[in-house]
Amino acid sequence: MATSLNIQGTVIPYEERKNSRSKRLSLRIGRDKVRVTAPCKATKREIREFVEANQDWILAHWVKIQEELLNIPKRQYQDGEALSVLGQSLELKIMKTNQKTMRLRYLKEEKKIEIRLPEGIALENQNEATREILGQWLKRKAREVFQTKLDQVSAQMGVSYKAFRLKEQKTRWGSCSSKGNINLNWRVILAPEQVIDYLIIHELAHLKHMNHSPSFWDVVGQYCSDYDVCRHWLKVNGDRLTL
Ligand SMILES: [Zn+2]
């Protein structure tokens, strides 16, 4: 059932779901709606009272998420702009040269990414070209960083995966198949390092438990004590992790 809530004048899209596996009422504040999941036996009245009892909390979280969404700065790909990679802020240095090809150099010590564009490039193509070359570089970087981490962490956890592939997906950060193939979304390279570590631990933990059961989270927790902070970070900031 899809409808909306009105909490102190703020209209919030609302959805109710019954789930035979849920034992109690639960609430989830998403980016586009608030969802209540109820056990099958829950009455309309119980659900209404539950929502009413939690309305201050719902409103506060809804407003916070909406504000965060509005604050996503649009990238301009201009000289001097900052890009966060592995949690480190790097400055884009964009310059024109008389060479015909584009080039990107990562200046590690100076924390800069230098991008050289051909002089003759039309203004309207400049942003797209910069985005393109940055994307290629970030994917290479992601492949290298993820691979290294997968090897280190899998050894620590005593698991072995079969293959690793870099993916580009809108909403999925990673996955692990029953055959032991791990996919990771390159966009996570734009997240802080602890979030990347969490994701890698999460996918490798699936080699021990192919589900999200309490035993699965126990394994994750052994190697990543602040996993809930990282999960939350991804939920809230995932949309920013893009070029
Ligand atoms: Zn999972």
From TrEMBL:
CDD domains per record: M48_yhfN_like (cd07344)
One protein family per Pfam: YgjP-like
Limits of the YgjP-like metallopeptidase domain: 23-235
The name this protein goes by in its record: YgjP-like metallopeptidase domain-containing protein
